[in-house]
Design a protein that fits this description.
Layout (H helix, E strand, L loop, with lengths): L1 E3 L9 E3 L8 H5 L1 H11 L4 E7 L11 E7 L5 E9 L5 E9 L10 E2 L8 E8 L5 E2 L4 E5 L7 E8 L13 E7 L5 E9 L4 E2 L6 E8 L6 E9 L4 E9 L3 E7 L8 E2 L11 E8 L8 E2 L10 E9 L7 E4 L23 H7 L53 E3 L13 E6 L5 E5 L28 E4 L5 E5 L7 E6 L5 E5 L4 E5 L8 E3 L15 E6 L5 E5 L5 E5 L5 E5 L1 E2 L11 E2 L2 E7 L4 E6 L4 E6 L4 E5 L8 E7 L4 E6 L13 E5 L5 E5 L8 E6 L6 E6 L4 E7 L35
Parallel strand pairs: 10-13, 13-23, 37-38
Antiparallel strand pairs: 1-2, 3-12, 4-7, 4-11, 5-9, 5-10, 5-12, 6-8, 6-11, 13-22, 14-21, 15-20, 16-19, 16-22, 17-18, 17-20, 24-49, 25-26, 26-27, 27-28, 29-30, 30-31, 31-32, 33-34, 34-35, 35-36, 39-40, 40-41, 41-42, 43-44, 44-45, 45-46, 47-48, 48-49
The chain binds 2-acetamido-2-deoxy-beta-D-glucopyranose (3 copies).
The site of one 2-acetamido-2-deoxy-beta-D-glucopyranose (NAG) has 6 residues, from loops.
């Protein structure tokens, strides 16, 4: 069984199988904690809440059942968890916090689905573990003003119930205080969203790393590792000039939270690096990422506390963003397995592992001392001045944030739904828009055939303005049907894609008539001489060009300057609910090249990510941040700055608190440098363009409202400098649109 982890659609990365125990008894044995506890218990501001299964009687063992309890308080703090269960009934219990309603409104439901939106693990219990409490003066913030609005208890039953047996009420009692403690607890999750473990490898590494970008330092006090059957050892470090071990775990042991040995302070600007090491000696084929027991996962959870002024603690780090800290740079012991621990191995080999692929990784070692280590929770962490520099990291920095340019005409620049925008070498803007036409459910039949082939758009659909928004010229009336992408190349040739015509056009600089047309008018196909709703074009200085194709094909096609196919790559991603492998697309919606670095990046729209390749189509890296949400619409590189600009879009049915906005990403590391927006908020951005000579102006075209915005970096001393901010908004979007089929009101 698998439990949906907090997070993104991509990260439907499950927390599979056993999660148990939690922090060691040593935590509660800390005398200072006890004293604190008594003080709090005598306080009238404390109360408790019983989160018990509402009378379950599963007929089979191994049932995973959930029940939900909304938190009605505005803001309160859990400082102690007390299990009320018997291991002969409940094998293990997990307590989740949902940032919204529970997955189901039923009294009891079959997990794994726990929450509708974001979720975090607050507590885990197994095997009659004694009461566990948080370190002194640390609480989990819950309540309607927090990101834990609903508590969900999950019980993994150890047995089936017979007919006349009384129903079960196992559960957890949480003790809470209304007094804000000095620190709040949170979970920081490191994970790898894409990797493959090759067969016959005794020790295969998967690395993760990123900069810690929260505003306040975090103090890890427990950690948990998660992998499936091939996982051998998972090790996580803080890097602040030297590597500081946060924890090392054997994922074949109970995947509990184990205490962190030393007091560690992770300061803003410090880095985190972790490695999962796999043993695939007995595998005959590659194993990819996925939620099932025959896939693998790589997760390192850090349970930490931070200053209680942090409103929504919890963050995550995906993939290997700082390769200069990982790989061969790790301490040499990183992949060394832990010594055997028969006791833990026995626990882990319980019946609850039935669905695991066991025996493949040979259960190396253990570390009993992990349970006896004293956690120095009584020490009050010192506050240090945050730094934003990591010594080994070359950080791109902007002195001023991107902001709406108020002298730009904005809505006064009349356009239809904006398909694409592009900027030429002189800084002129080119807009390809749909005039009075709207793409809706009537536009195509189910087979992607355009339904109004006698009705070209009667207005001019290409608009050219100077950098202040003054119109230079317009053209294209009577020729196009459903404008999509536009790209002006270094010689000012204009490239257009029309999704109704299934064609790509090249118009020489200054002209308004195509001299090169690729694809067949109104005919789509999978053969390489056809497109199917092609979305965008990127052009090299040699004249060779790339087409992202598109809504119904899922590929990138490379052409010679005279329009002959050189090669194509990419496949539709047919997998659902897991991180699709690179090279598979769900609407490649926008394509951009950085010739100097030999990189081509694609906005893989419905997968909410960017995929970068070399110019021959070999996969290079993937960029995905939780702030993107489930859908990423457009990308454009600024080679001068070495950055990639991107815009996301609203989720189809995701939480409404996803911020639609723009992003600036370091092209080489994938690091998110900044997010930006207009004061009223972007709503349905469809494309963006960057002035290629200065990278100083970014234009965003929206479908609705029908407008092009201009953002510049204001050179005013009153302007606040940009903070490298990480949004805590997380999207969990389960629904996908069908490729090429727009819903009734969808405009693509
Ligand atoms: C746990 O359940 C078993 C079997 O039902 C019972 O014999 C035992 O007394 C219970 N233990 C506790 C502590 O309730
Ligand atoms: C690195 O982190 C450790 C543990 O928090 C700390 O003791 C040490 O002083 C830190 N070093 C620097 C240079 O900040
Ligand atoms: C708007 O952009 C232009 C350059 O494109 C710049 O000169 C001007 O200062 C910007 N105005 C504001 C208010 O940022």
């Amino acid at each position: 069984m698998c439990v949906r982890a907090p997070m993104t659609r991509l990260g439907v990365l499950a927390v599979c199988c056993v999660v148990s125990l939690v922090m060691s008894p040593t935590l509660s044995a800390d005398p200072t904690t006890r004293v604190m506890d008594e003080v709090i218990e005598a306080d009238p501001t404390t109360h408790s809440m019983s989160l018990l299964m509402r009378g379950a009687k599963p007929s089979q063992p191994d049932a995973y059942l959930c029940t939900a309890y909304p938190v009605t308080d505005l803001e309160t703090y859990i400082y102690k968890f007390q299990a009320q269960a018997n291991a002969s009934t409940a094998h293990h219990m997990l307590l989740y916090g949902c940032d919204g309603p529970a997955y189901s409104t039923a009294d009891i439901w079959h997990c794994p689905s726990v929450c509708r939106g974001q979720q975090t693990i607050l507590f885990a219990w197994a095997k009659n573990a004694p009461p566990t409490e948080l370190p002194r003066d640390v609480g989990h913030r819950v309540g309607q003003r927090s990101n834990v609005k609903t508590l969900v208890l999950q019980v993994h039953y150890a047995k089936g119930f017979v007919r006349n047996e009384s129903p079960d009420h196992s559960g957890i009692i949480v003790h809470m205080t209304d007094r804000r403690p000095k620190f709040v607890a949170g979970i920081f999750l490191m994970m790898s969203t894409w990797f493959q473990v090759p067969p016959h490898r005794e020790s295969y590494p998967v690395d993760m790393s990123c900069v810690y970008l929260e505003q306040k330092p975090m103090y890890p006090f427990a950690f948990r590792t998660h992998a499936h059957g091939l996982g051998k050892v998972i090790t996580g470090y803080l890097y602040n000039g030297t590597y500081q071990l946060i924890g090392k775990g054997n994922p074949q042991w109970p995947q509990a939270f184990y205490p962190v040995e030393d007091v560690i302070e992770v300061k803003p600007g410090d880095s985190l690096a972790a490695r999962c090491t796999y043993d695939s000696t007995h595998m005959d084929q590659r194993v990819g990422v996925g939620a099932t027991g025959s896939d693998e996962m790589c997760n390192f959870y850090i349970m930490y506390y931070t200053d209680s002024s942090v409103q929504r603690p919890g963050a995550e780090c995906m993939n290997d963003q700082l390769p200069e800290l990982t790989g061969a740079h790790f301490p040499s012991s990183v992949s060394q397995p832990l010594p055997p621990n028969p006791q833990l191995e026995e626990v882990a080999s319980g019946h609850h592992h039935a669905h695991h692929q066991h025996g493949m990784s040979g259960g190396q070692g253990g570390v009993a001392q992990v349970h006896t280590t004293q956690v120095h929770t009584t020490q009050t962490p010192t506050t240090q001045t945050p730094t934003t520099q990591t010594p080994t990291m070359q950080e791109i920095h902007f002195d001023h944030p991107l902001q709406l340019n108020t002298s730009w005409p904005g809505v006064e620049l009349t356009v239809g739904q904006v398909g694409g925008v592009s900027v030429d070498q002189r800084g002129n803007l080119y807009v390809f828009h749909r005039g009075s036409r709207v793409w809706n459910a009537a536009s195509f039949d189910i087979d992607n055939n355009f339904q109004f082939q006698d009705s070209p758009i009667t207005e001019d659909v290409v608009l050219v303005t100077d950098s202040t928004g003054h119109k230079i010229r317009s053209f294209g009336a009577g020729r196009y049907f459903l404008p999509h992408g536009i790209q002006v190349d270094h010689k000012d040739n204009i490239w257009l894609t029309d999704v109704a015509l299934h064609q790509v056009f090249k118009i020489p600089a200054g002209s308004d008539t195509p001299t090169l047309t690729i694809g067949h008018r109104f005919q789509h196909g999978e053969e390489l001489t056809f497109f199917c709703k092609p979305t965008d074009v990127a052009v090299l200085s040699s004249g060779e060009f790339f087409v992202s194709d598109g809504y119904c094909n899922s590929r990138v096609v490379k052409f010679s300057a005279d329009g002959k196919v050189i090669k194509a790559w990419g496949e539709k991603n047919l997998e659902f609910g897991v991180s699709p492998p690179p090279g598979t697309f769900d609407v490649p919606h926008s394509v951009t090249v950085s010739e100097g670095t030999g990189q081509l990046c694609v906005a893989d729209r419905e997968n909410g990510r960017v995929q970068c390749f070399d110019l021959e189509g070999n996969f290079d890296h993937l960029i995905r941040h939780k702030e993107f949400g489930p859908r990423l619409f457009a990308v454009e590189v600024c080679p001068l700055q070495g950055v990639l600009y991107a815009v996301n879009g609203p989720a189809y049915d995701g939480p409404s608190d996803l911020t639609v906005q723009g992003f600036t990403v370091d092209m080489s590391s994938g690091q998110l440098l900044e997010s930006w927006n207009i004061p009223q908020g972007l709503r349905n951005p469809h494309d963006l363009a960057v002035d290629p000579t200065t990278c100083g102006s970014v234009y965003v075209g929206e479908l609705n409202p029908r407008v092009v915005w201009k953002l510049t970096r204001a050179d005013r001393s009153t302007t606040p400098t940009p903070h490298l901010h990480m949004d805590t908004q997380i999207v969990n979007n389960n629904k996908k649109n069908q490729i090429g089929q727009a819903g009734p009101s969808d405009t693509q």
